[in-house]
Amino acid sequence: MSQHTKEVFYGLYNDEEDLIHAIEEANAQHLDIMDVYTPFPVHGLEKVMHLEESRLHIAGFVFGSLGFFTAFGFMTWVFTRDWPIIFGGKPYWSVPAFIPITFELTVLFAAIGMVVSFYTVCGLGPGVTNPVLDDRITDDKFCIAFETANADLNALKAFFAKTGAGEVHTKTI
Amino acid sequence: MHAPVAPVREPLIEGHKSYHNITEDLCAPTEKAPSLAWIIAFIVSVGTMTFGLFCLAWTVWFGIGSWNLNRTIGWGYDITNFVWWIGIGHAGTLISAVLLLFRQKWRTGVNRAAEAMTIFAVICAGLFPATHTGRPWFDFFMFPYPNTRGPLWVNFNSPLLWDLFAISTYFTVSLLFWYTGLVPDFATVRDRAVGFRKKMYNVLSFGWTGSAKHWQRWEALSLVLAGLATPLVLSVHTIVSFDFATSVIPGWHTTIFPPYFVAGAIFSGFAMVQTLMIITRKILNLQQYITINHIESMNKVILLTGTIVGVAYLTELFIAWYSGYLYEQFAFFNRATGIYWWAYFGMMACNVLSPQIFWVKKYRRSIYIAFLMSIFVNIGMWFERFVIIATTLARDYLPSSWSYYTPTWVEIGIYLGTLGIFFTLYLLFTRLAPVVAVAEVKHILKSAGDQYIGERTKGSQGSEAIHESAH
Fold first, then answer.
1. Alpha-carbon span B363 to B372, nearest angstrom
2. What is the dihedral of CA B460, B461, B463, B468, to 10 degrees?
3. Those residues with Cβ within 8 angstroms of residue A161's Cβ, 6 or more apart along the chain or in another chain
4. How many CB atoms lie within 10 A of CB B152?
5. All domains of chain B, ordered by start, with CATH?
6. For residue B24, what are the CA distances in angstroms to B32, B53, B190?
7. How far apart are CA B346 and CA A111, in angstroms?
């Protein structure tokens, strides 16, 4: 996805607890972490990396509301304006009978909207190929990556050595 | 380094696995050549599926007259099978969504396969309403699209239309939930693959990198989708039960139907998960990930929901008697002692009596009994739907139009065909994707792996070294 190539210096850890301690250390040394990659969601990362809470649930609410009003509004329009029909002697605007479809479309819109939002904000999707720093990141390695462009390589090396990174590599992506 | 886990916890991952072991073990089935057992099962499934598709084509060509439905009994195998398959689908959502909300760690061993099962079961279920209309090429009439006939809209007040919306939504949401869970695991397979498989999994994995922010959003998405899927799954079988409950047929027109159908759906779904998982863990060698503890947990759910269903059966009988309504009383008397008494007996024996064996821990933890019981429950729940549908319709208000129903070979063929479709899709799934959620199992390793569980003998001492893992 990135337009420019950049050189990345990264270290691989063998355990998520080492990773968290390393990030704390990086924060203490004011190192500018590019990104952290893990094979599974590591709880506690959001705290040390100061990640804000995801706002996806807001998207879910907005899309769900859209589904709610679409379904309820459409059925209301059909049965009171466009083509009113009496079913079983009930009023045209028979609200209880609209509940099931309104509920289903609320859920449908919220789910599709959230999933599409998720892939869009993450820059993921069919046909997307993102550079992979190391094939073992999706297996059992925990990775901290720095951009080399404006970093002090010796300081980074010292940092990785101090925090117990198993391996360090440089890669241009 | 980390707090040992309380010894009261049963391990959910056995064999002192490391993260790398988990990757190796769970990706292996997608990387090795298929075993002989898989090939034989696949040939049988495809054969059955082909026969089913032939019977479907026969139905479309010659019309619904090739089924044995008649003026009195308008729903037979078709809707019985539809409700049965939809019910089976429910366990997948229950495991992936409800157990996620309840933070039940054992779900990680079985959720992936159960969700796949949901999707395949809904595909099988959908075939029946689509073809039982008789002219399936007019099925698009069911959708409210702007048409040249007015436009004349569909009846939004009809439970049958609610059903269409419920099942379409259910299928879509289940598919999205399942696929989003699969993306990181496809990335794991991608990073191990070479050549064509690498390209294929590169497309399937959507460019997943494992970035911390992506994981955070992924977890947020999973949680909200679980929150949406939970009421959704309850609504789906509620609406299926409305197909019956909103009618004026004695035996159908009951307010107990929604909870009773939902409990029955979970019950049959767990039985099908159990059947599949017991075979899968054996054939794919996953006994250390789908452990006897998982099987026991599922057996507990089967016992609970089976008992709920049993209470519902008895409540129906009591209410029929207590209502003082002659037709209702006859409907239930007829179910138990009428022409289809054997179906009612099969239902009661398989659904209510046989699961009671699971009160005994030894039987809950026996693989053979669990497997046998899962088959019993599947049969029993099929009978339940048959009892509700065919038995009730066979004896309606007018004795002169009383009738009997036996399926033709075409109807039986379509039913077998859906089993073929289901197992064909499932077998393909075991080859293409990790059957157990790799990332999620890694996530629980340090709280459920056997090497991290405290010594059991120290259990009741309340030793200071033992505390719950922080989650």
1. 11
2. 10
3. none
4. 13
5. 19-448 (1.20.1630.10)
6. 11, 38, 13
7. 40
Strands A35-37 and A167-172 turn out to be unpaired
Interface A–B counts its CB contacts (< 8 A) at 191
Q: What is the pLDDT along chain A (173 residues), one digit of tens a residue?
A: 446 788 888 889 888 888 988 888 888 888 888 889 999 998 888 888 888 888 889 999 999 999 999 999 999 999 999 989 888 888 999 999 999 999 999 999 999 999 999 999 999 988 888 888 888 888 888 999 888 887 788 888 888 888 888 888 888 87
Match 């993102």 to its residue by tokens: A130
User: Choosing among B153, B243, B436, B447, which should be mutated to test the A contact, i.e. which has the most A CBs within 10 A?
Assistant: B153
Task: Encode pLDDT of B328-339 as tens digits.
Answer: 899 999 999 989
- Cα separation, B323 vs A11, in Å, equals 74
Length of chain A: 173
Q: Do A118 and B166 touch (CB under 8 A)?
A: no
| A68 and A114 both lie in a single domain | yes
Closest CA to B155 of A88, A23, A125, A44: A88
Domain harbouring A165, CATH code: 3.30.70
> Looking at CA atoms only, how far is residue A26 from chain B in angstroms?
16
Do A137 and B191 contact (CB within 8 A), yes or no?
A: yes
For residues A98 and A43, membership in a common domain is answered with: no
Interface of A with B in 19-38 (CB under 8 A): 35-38
Radius of gyration of chain A from its Cα atoms, rounded to whole angstroms:
25
Structural tokens at position B435: 């059957």
pLDDT tens readout for residues B19-28: 888 888 888 8
From the CA of B274, how many Å to the nearest CA of chain A? 27
Distance CA B178, CA B197 (A): 21
Contacts of B206 in chain A (CB under 8 A): 119, 124-126, 128
Same domain, A67 and A112: yes
Domain span holding position A87: 56-122
CB spacing of B224 vs A90 below 8 angstroms:
no
d(CA A43, CA B219): 10
Asked whether residue A65 falls in the same domain as residue A109, the answer is yes
In chain A, the residue whose alpha carbon lies closest to the alpha carbon of B225 is: A111
